[in-house]
Amino acid sequence: MVAEENVMKRTMILMLVMTTAFGVLAYTTYSRPPADDVKVIKITAKKFDFTPSELTVKKGVPVVLELTSTDRVHGFSLPDFKLTARIEPGKVTRVTFTPDRTGEFTFSCNIFCGSGHEDMAGRLIVTD
Length: 128
Known about the structure:
Elements: H1 2-29, E1 39-46, E2 49-51, E3 54-58, E4 63-69, E5 74-78, E6 83-87, E7 93-97, E8 103-108, E9 121-127
Parallel strand pairs: 1-4, 3-9
Antiparallel strand pairs: 1-2, 4-7, 5-6, 8-9
């Protein structure tokens, strides 16, 4: 009887710990709406083109890229900031980051989308 009570107590403690851990995980990964100091940029991907293809942001200011596709699956890769995303037609894919350095950086489609894919690129300019 004592052994069964110990097993029951351990099971209850384990369940409490797991429930707390999942709660913390859910809270920390919750996608909050952008604050006023966040720059939101809408980018449309279509066969071999990003619109706009040139983005200008400020160092230290959080950025949310809202990526959509009008024709097929595309990708988004900004290697200098270790960002990648899959862009599904008819859906919005959000990518959030805070630029930590100034300069000009290239982004491109990283999912082959046909002849001309290699030219599907753009430029991110980060200013002070």
